[in-house]
Amino acid sequence: MSQPQALHPLVIIPTYNERENLPRLLDRVHAALPQAHVLIVDDGSPDGTGALADEHAAADERVHVLHRTGKQGLGTAYIAGFKWGLAAPGRRYTHLFEMDADFSHEPEVLPKLLAATETADFALGSRWVKGGETVNWPLKRRLLSQGGSLYARTVLGLSVRDLTGGFKCFKREVLEAIDLDGISAKGYGFQIELTYRAAQAGFRPVEVPIRFADRVAGQSKMSGSIFAEAFTLVWKLRLGRV
Other CB atoms closer than 10 Å to residue 6's CB: what's the count? Predict the structure, then answer.
């Protein structure tokens, strides 16, 4: 009887001015998923987040750091992280996670997302399925997020209820099958495009309910231009212009 494959997860966390959050975040990730490695993708944080990440990497072989020059966007940070994880010498990560650094994604959910991939190809942390919730969100923001996901999934013909969330776990083969260089969205729309391309490639998603709270420390990276990009992106995807 063959032995089950050992799981080697990699949690990819983009950072920009997250020095205040980083130590506690790493502690909680390691407590929730001790076998996981963590890749910090830092965009030259002026507050020294990258240097602090280097200190953690020197002290713990599970922590790695990818330094980039300047703020280049969330989507490109994840793509750089995926490429690093897929090509990491001496390691073969079986699962790659996306996760925010601001505690809006609770590290304790990591094992649930990993377990969900036993019956699906990739797992999405979802605010808009039964059991999911948002904390301290005004009605306007809730309607904007739910409406955005409804708009995107209607145009793209997808069943996923939370298309704009960024807490995800992919089996390695999903990311290997996607043309990562062909992904055009760099901001908010990146999450929509990545899920769409994975589904178009024939991979099956599953949504895992999560509790989503606003960041604990630091400043939000969201802007109006990011929402505008996502709004127009879905039609470009639908019409095959991306």
Answer: 8
**DSSP class of 51:** H
Three-state DSSP class for residue 11 = strand
pLDDT at 3: 46
Number of domains in the chain: 1
Per DSSP (E only), the strands in 3-44 are 9-15, 37-42
Residue 2 lies in a domain: no
Strand 63-67: give its sheet, edge to edge: 63-67, 37-42, 9-15, 95-98, 168-171, 122-126, 205-209
Non-local (6+) Cβ contacts of 211 within 8 A are 106, 132, 133, 134, 135
Residue 105 placed within a domain: yes
- Domain of 224? 9-238
| Domain of residue 99, CATH code | 3.90.550.10
The secondary structure of residue 134, as a DSSP letter, is: E
pLDDT mean across residues, the chain: 90
Q: Which residues pair with 211 in a beta bridge?
A: 133
The predicted model gives 208-220 an average pLDDT of 71
Q: Taking the chain, what is the end-to-end CA distance rounded to the nearest angstrom?
A: 46
Q: Is 160 part of any domain?
A: yes
Under DSSP, is residue 206 helix (H, G, I), strand (E, B) or coil?
strand
User: pLDDT grade, residue 2 (50/70/90)?
Assistant: very low
Q: Is 218 a residue whose pLDDT tops 50? A: no
What is the rounded distance in angstroms from the CA atom of residue 130 to the CA atom of residue 126?
A: 9
